[in-house]
Write a structure and sequence with these properties.
It is a single chain. By secondary structure, this protein is of the alpha/beta class. It has two domains: about 1-170 and about 225-250, Rossmann fold (3-Layer(aba) Sandwich); about 190-220 and about 250-325, Alpha-Beta Complex (UDP-galactose 4-epimerase, domain 1). The chain has helices spanning about 10-20, 55-65, 80-85, 85-105, 140-160, 190-195, 225-240, 255-270, 290-300, 305-320, and strands at about 1-5, 25-30, 45-50, 70, 110-115, 160-165, 170, 205, 220, 220-225, 245-250, 255, 275, 285. It has a seven-stranded parallel beta sheet, with helices on both faces. It has a three-stranded mixed beta sheet with strand order 12-9-14. Helix 1 (about 10-20) links the parallel strand 1 and strand 2 (about 25-30). It is globular and about 55 Å long. The protein starts with a strand and ends in an 8-residue tail after the last helix. The chain binds uridine-5'-diphosphate (UDP). The site of uridine-5'-diphosphate has 14 residues, from helix 6 and strand 8. Uridine-5'-diphosphate binds near residues 169 and 220.
Length: about 325
Amino acid sequence: MRILVTGGAGYIGSHTVRHLQAHGHFVHVYDNLSRGHAASIPAEIFTQGDLHDLSKLDHVMATNQIEAVIHFAAFAQVGESTKNPELYYRNNVAGTISLVEAMKRCNISKLVFSSTCATYGNPTVVPIVEETPQKPINPYGKTKLIVEWMLKDLCAAHKWSCASLRYFNAAGASPDGGIGEDHNPETHLIPLALSAAAGRSKFLEIFGTDYPTPDGTCIRDYIHVDDLANAHRLALEKTLPGEHLCLNLGTGKGNSVYEILNAVKDITGKAVPFTIGARREGDPPALVASCKKANLRLGWEANYKDIREIITTAWRWHQSHPDGYKTR
Ligand code: UDP
């Protein structure tokens, strides 16, 4: 298939680009580099451009004879979305409207959309199934849910095939250490814990130890970025015309913050210095996916089932790229 990957220079996007190419697909990346890294993708398959630049979008789709789109380009920080919601509605919602209008003009009707477990808000029952009511508690989750609604209507009206993939906690890096996670600022637990273990920061602050979980810290479902990439390819290949397929992507297993710090210690051989801080606003106690539907519909399951294997790949990337893509 000839696939346009928006946001393909980002963390999950760049791993998906590699995965698609390895499976024989033609890939072109469209990214404005506001958060992504040109170094994470081959230069010859890249166009720098914005979702709001309609003529550029049309041109890229037409000249590359695009047949399908995987749409990652979005902002994804919960805290930032609370402080600057207009940024999120403009980029995530208006940007996607531009994209689907360009797709319509170019007769492209296949789309895989990067959604999130943040659309569920504070679910009371885990593991979370796809039918769990979606009640997002921050602007980031709301913008993703609005797009899901729009895609559902497009599928019904125009017989498009769309998949909304609701990721849990993306983690890890390419096993060869060539590409990995590089956010600025970094807010995610695993890269921050690795930095603290490596002595590059003084300590990691644990956001709350008084949650109703066995050890008092939050539980998350960490899923390897290459397993996410594989699910995008399968969703593209298997979604039917007129269908809006919504799938959770996780391992089905949760790990607490303390469990992550222990795993980091085992892998790096260094204890993670930490302090205990207050709860972070908007953090639900436990988010764990039920992955039954993805397994049934795509034949997909996570290859990386053990958090230690995931952290091993993140550590390899961290060691070879201590300053991310800026490392020479
Ligand atoms: N967390 C933490 N300290 C940090 C960053 C994260 O204790 O410096 C906790 C956070 O409260 C959450 C878990 O680690 O329970 C995963 O957070 P992350 O930001 O990696 O992902 P999120 O679940 O917010 O998408």
